[in-house]
TrEMBL record:
Name of this chain's protein: HTH cro/C1-type domain-containing protein
Biological classification of the source: Bacteria, Pseudomonadati, Pseudomonadota, Gammaproteobacteria, Moraxellales
Entries under InterPro entries matching the protein: Cro/C1-type_HTH
Domain of life from the UniProt record: Bacteria
Length: 74
């Protein structure tokens, strides 16, 4: 996915790069470094597309991430 499309979908999802990276437990710089390449990897593209689609459908995706993060606390 081109980085520009990634940014557009991030906006549709209502997320900043920092928020997206935090949800994924990533460093925001790891996300912004893809801008130099001009595209994002497929796994990142799928995630942002899903989050954008969920937002369009009125689905709150934050509880999903909270549940996933709770597994690492065990």
């Amino acid at each position: 996915m081109p980085y520009e499309e990634f940014q557009r979908l991030m906006g549709k999802a209502g997320l900043s790069i920092k928020e997206f990276a935090t949800l994924l437990d990533m460093n925001p710089n790891s996300i912004t470094n893809y801008k130099k390449i001009g595209k994002v990897p497929t796994h990142i593209a799928v995630l942002v597309y899903l989050l954008s689609s969920m937002k369009d459908e009125g689905v709150d995706f934050y509880p999903i991430f909270e549940k996933i993060k709770s597994y690492s606390k065990d």
